[in-house]
Amino acid sequence: MTSRVLQNIGLCRKAGFVIFGFDAVKKEMAAPNNKVFGIVTASDLSAKSLKEIRFEADKYGKPVEQITASMSELEQVLNKRTGIIAILDEGFYTLLTASK
Predict the structure, then answer these.
(1) CB of 64 within 8 A of CB of 38?
(2) Does residue 93 contact residue 38 with C-beta atoms inside 8 Å?
(3) What is the pLDDT along the chain (100 residues), one digit of tens a residue?
(4) Which of the chain's ends, N or C, has fewer CB atoms near its CB within 10 Å?
């Protein structure tokens, strides 16, 4: 199941519908014309980071889903170690959360 999630994240990244990292995701959600459909987090994201991103997402009414992929696995797909990813396309977000 994890390989399907990683493949979908890779496709989403290539299509340009991904923002990653806490600060970048927070900034995008706060933008007046924000396009965030939802946020996915790595399975091994710290409890503190998960709490903080959920707090920010709740402010803007954005869902947060934890996926089965770890930060190391996401690093292989995104070429950057991160545990927080904003998805900017409804179809990709639905695909990711369905295959988690």
Answers:
(1) yes
(2) yes
(3) 578 889 999 999 999 999 999 999 999 999 999 999 999 999 999 999 999 999 999 999 999 999 989 999 999 999 999 999 999 999 999 888 786 5
(4) N
- The span from the CA of 71 to the CA of 63, in Å, is 20
Measured CA to CA in angstroms, residue 99 lies from 41, 44, 50, 93, 96 at distances of 14, 18, 20, 10, 5
CB–CB of 68/93 below 8 Å? no
Helices (H), 15-70: 22-30, 47-60
- What is the residue whose two structure tokens read 């998805």? 87
